[in-house]
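I'll show a sample.
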Amino acid sequence: MHTVLASGLYNFVYSVMVYDVNTYADAYLTNIYNFYWLPTCYFDGGYRQHDGTTTSAITSRLLQCGAREVPDLDLSVTLTWLGSASIQVDVSITNNQYINTAPLTPETPVGPPTGAATFPYPFTAAASDPDGDSLYFMFDWGDSYQSDWLGPFAAGEDGMGAHPWTTYGTYEVKAKVKDTAGAESAWSPVATIDLAKPGNANGDASVNVGDAVYIISYIFRGGPAPPVMNAADANCDNKVNVGDAVYIISYIFRQGPAPGCQ
């Protein structure tokens, strides 16, 4: 063993137990290692073993130990001769392995409480990671659709996604996150969005000539504003004007395209 160490080709530490002159060594070898041959070398606490003094065999066992996957630990062993047949052994072990912690569950997503179907609406969600990792966000839109993993977003930055719903109604939106190591959080609490029917300017749940009249009254006569402004934006040009009233009339009487973002 000493010959192999002295070659300088292998970096290892070894200790010698002389069983026939030390009762403690005798007991340790007999009870722990099942010693039966002199000399015997035990590598990595018995992971490999060699009976005898063959240098090539010792080298082979060292290489086998060096090739296996082991935890990322730093080991420092210091031996101090105290005299009177006493040795002080100081051992220090540092665990360098990275242990990833899953992100925390995101907070309830934030977005508009109302809108109109077919219009895209953005939602944001806030989440944090105990390790400070960047995060990917996924949104469940409540209509059988989920976003892709969006991001990554830097630690402390809100994730954002947008979605158009094809049918009017009330939907529940939730979010979850995963870190750059792939660990995922649970789903967040849900936020709701209530979507009106596109073209339903007066809020009566149907699209008819009354909606065109409602828009004209709002624009030219100071009438009440549409309950959901996007619902009155029949031609989806991001403004409500006489063009939306014309669009609705065309849809009702001339088989024009349906209101909303097609």
